[in-house]
Amino acid sequence: MDRTPVVFIHGAWLRASSWESWAERFTRHGFRTFAPGWPGEGLDAGPPVAPDVLGGVGLDVLTDHYAAVVRALDTSPVLIGHSVGALVAQHLVGAEVGRAAVAIAPAPVGGVALPAEAARVWAPPAHAAESLVSLTARRFRQVVANAVEAAESDRLFARHAMPAPRRLLADLAAPSASALPDTGNAARGPLLLISGQEDRLVPDSVTRTVYKAYGDCPAVTDLKQFADRGHSLVLDSCWPCVADYVLTWLDAHGIRAQATHTSTRTR
């Protein structure tokens, strides 16, 4: 039997290293794990290896990038995404590319109402010329790692922070129809939505709005809310409780580390 693959998709202002603890834990549980970065990202902390490439990444480009990763696998994977990665994971599972998805603090799209602080981060000033938008350590602490101590926030920022493409942020404000998730596909695999109830960047209310959008779809859609957790819930010191919940949820839906061969769907 094949080992079930898991593809981790990171979000804006973080790099693929934000999944390193999850990948290790899922590997120990017998899954085959992949945490590919965004185009132009690079593997280690520091500036992107190809800032011009990263600066050109929009939502369609990012979705196509991860679709290609999934379709290259010989077994249909579980998709686990955070923030913008959660939006991509929804889009892919909705197109039946991937066998199941977990969307953690999914990025808001298309004019979803946000508190003023979050709205300012997702929509930086239009007159700025830079193709990449960075968060300062102070801003990171305010909107990403607000539920942990300052020292932990600083460590997370130094290890995992990365600029976000301005083009991507613009796409989130006005996404093309092709980049929006299909919330009505009854044939898709199970989907779990997760929120942190202290999240300032993707408030719990946004994730609940996403959950309601799937209300008429008979495919499995579940919601889990974590009290006292912010946007950094996938990488701060409380990540194990989130990861273990996901492992339990997958098992409850018959998705285990060892599985018979399942071809990747390529719609």
Task: Indicate the topology.
Elements: E1 2-3, E2 5-9, H1 20-28, E3 32-34, H2 51-55, H3 59-71, E4 78-82, H4 84-94, E5 100-104, H5 116-122, E6 132-133, H6 137-143, H7 150-160, E7 164-165, H8 166-173, E8 191-196, H9 204-213, E9 221-226, H10 239-252, E10 258-259
Parallel strand pairs: 2-3, 2-4, 4-5, 5-8, 8-9
Antiparallel strand pairs: 1-10, 6-7
Helix pairs in contact: 1-10, 3-4
| Straight-line N-to-C gap | 25 Å
How does the overall form come out from the CA principal axes?
globular
Percent helix: 25-40%
What's the mean pLDDT score? 91
Give a count of the beta strands, DSSP E runs of length 2 or more: 10
Q: Taking Cα atoms only, what radius of gyration do you get, to the nearest Å?
A: 17 Å
- The secondary-structure element order is EEHEHHEHEHEHHEHEHEHE
Q: Largest sheet at a glance?
A: 6 strands, parallel
The residue ranges in which pLDDT falls below 50 over 5 or more consecutive positions are none
Indicate the proportion of strand residues: 5-15%
Strand arrangement within the widest β-sheet reads 3-2-4-5-8-9
The number of distinct helices, counting runs of at least 4 residues, comes to 10
Look at the helices and sheets and give the structural class. alpha/beta
